[in-house]
Automatic annotation (TrEMBL):
Identification of the protein by name: MarR family transcriptional regulator
SUPFAM superfamilies: Winged helix' DNA-binding domain
Origin superkingdom: Bacteria
Provenance organism: Virgisporangium aurantiacum
All copies of domain Winged helix DNA-binding, residue ranges: 18-96
InterPro entries assigned to the protein according to its UniProt record, in alphabetical order: WH-like_DNA-bd_sf (IPR036388), WH_DNA-bd_dom (IPR027395), WH_DNA-bd_sf (IPR036390)
Length: 108
């Protein structure tokens, strides 16, 4: 009997907070910090901390600059981050498919 192991989600992305941030960033080339915060519903400090962790993993780029005289921060997914997000989502889908198939089996 061959045992099939489901794919493993990415341990770096495998928190709802980080997954939410990456999902927001996946929709654009670059997103201003305030828009990430507002769209994700997370606080400034949580976005900052998690974005820094994702940057350390090579998944997110953080760019600082100014819009007029006001300082701004923009976040974007790196190519590695975008690929990791797609793999993570595919792994989650396969896990959900396993659960759906298990639910579809007749109960004893």
């Amino acid at each position: 009997m061959v045992t099939h192991h489901p794919p493993l989600p990415d341990p770096i992305i495998n928190t709802t907070t980080r997954l939410s941030l990456m999902a927001v960033l996946a929709g654009a080339q670059e997103v201003e910090f305030a828009d990430v915060r507002d769209t994700s519903g997370l606080s400034d400090s949580v976005v900052s901390k998690q974005a820094t962790a994702l940057q350390a993993a090579g998944y997110v780029t953080i760019r600082k600059g100014h819009l007029g005289r006001r300082p701004r921060t923009w976040l974007s997914l790196t190519p590695a981050g975008r690929a990791a997000l797609h793999r993570h989502i595919a792994a989650l889908r396969q896990i959900v498919d396993l659960a759906d198939r298990a639910d579809a089996r007749p109960r004893r």
